[in-house]
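User: I'm putting together a teaching handout on how multi-component assemblies are represented. Below are the sequence lines for each component of a complex, exactly as they appear in our records. Could you produce the 3D structure of the whole assembly as structure tokens, so the students can see both representations side by side? Please keep the chain order the same as the input.
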Amino acid sequence: MIDVRDLCFHYQGSKHQVFDHFALQLQPGSVYGLLGKNGTGKSTLLYLISGLLRPDSGTVTVNGMESRLRLPEMLQEVFIVPEEYAMPDMSFEAFADMMRAFYPHFSDDLLAKCLTDFEMPARPNLKELSMGQKKKVYMSFAIATGTRLLMMDEPTNGLDIPSKALFRKVVANYMEDNRTLIISTHQVHDIESLLDHVVIINQSRVLLNSSIADISRRYAFRYLSPQEMDNTVLYAEPTLQGNAVIMPRGEGEETQVDLELLFNATISGKLGNA
Amino acid sequence: MSRFLQVLRWELLLSKRQIATMALTFFGLVVIPQILTLVFKSSSSSAYTMGIISSVALSAYLLCSGALIFSSLRSRQQRINNFMLPASNKEKFIARYLVLVVAMPLAAIAGFFAGDVLQYLMSLMINSDAAQWATSALTEGLNNGNGIFHFYTNLNGDPSPVEGFLVILLGTITQHACFLLFGSIYHKHPLVMAVLTWMGLGIALLMLGALAANLLSEFINSGYTIILYDAWWKALYFVVSIALIIFCYWFAFRRYTRLQVINNQWINK
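Assistant: Of course. Below is the structure of the complete assembly, with chains in the same order as your input.
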């Protein structure tokens, strides 16, 4: 569905090459977590996929269409929720009307359900919304458009603690199986339960592109006391409960993936040796 | 076609504040001076003068409005909204252009007429001697303009108002297209920068013209015979103008298709 080939990109006026012959393939129908350190180009990658930025060289295609061309056939299947959002200067009804006109799969029913689940009024006044409320309304619209690809950049930033739970509930309830969601975030704990695929990028390289099921099959995430530590441990971090470790799962029981631990282990290169 | 109309509707909705401001400005331009005139100098009317000023302002807007083609794409959010809208680049560009060059002047004209009716009725109520239509200045201006075209002569020396009209129309469209080009190059203060560039280019062209004339007169004074065919100059004017207009529109559209949400240097790959 998304095919990034030999992508090179840098920002004008900057010598830093954000992507240098970068490649990535993402399949449809998954909820992807796009993780990476600050400045690795997570938001840039989302913008490149949606055609908001143009590659220096290489190609980014969505459903076989080059995103830089911004073809209407591609755009009606792609929606991006940026980190910061200002609603356009129009009423809720006018905005919904426009969305309805441009997105063939737009669902008023889904919009109403998302707004209800986000504990927002059915017809919010777009001019009187706080940052978090704007995000909730815009995310409701994003889900209601029914696009096959939905991208969210730091979706939980600006949301209070109860709203983060509401966000998980909305995404879990209303993202259909045929839709792809890419969530770029630092707040891994906010989205841990939603993901079925993890992509970790660093310095123009994809360090990990794997399903949660596959990670669970290969690794066990446990807490071990110092006495229990042995050479099977691939990566460990000291915590108050003991050492949080990643080790080969072997024949043991499946454990819940600790995304933060997985991220740190991947970035430090410890899992590459496994 | 229906998608294009939706894009046009989207652009109109987003520009409704600017359209309303335009209409109110021209409304106020006719009404406010007349109110002040009636209050302080009840026997006279400012309507005619304001009619002339309004028509000059509207003409200036039509000439220079191209410079504002990307002015509503200043913020990151505005660009995201525009670029992600599921319509073709061509539809979005044309809709944007039509709002700027058709909808805004229409709003100005509507505001002007509404203001003219109001000021006329007010004048009738307060002092009927001071009642005068601002619109009469426009009709008079148009008649005078028509007279200017009659001064234009063709190759045989006969008056040719149609050709004169075409020459002036082409010149006007060329200037409008040049402002479109400047507006797509300058991101900061596009209107001011476009006017300055236009003035700079005008001065440079005048100087080149003076230099060429000087060279020609020197050649003629030193015994050479130079024959300048009027038809060639006219043909050159038409060809260059049309080529320049096409280039300006093409460049602005190409520039639009290459705008990015960030990273907007004017040369993009």
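A couple of points students might notice: DSSP finds nine helices and 13 strands in chain A. Chain A touches chain B at residues 11-13, 47, 50-57, 70-72, 75-76, 78-80, 82, 84-86, 88-90, 94, 98, 101-103 (CB under 8 Å).
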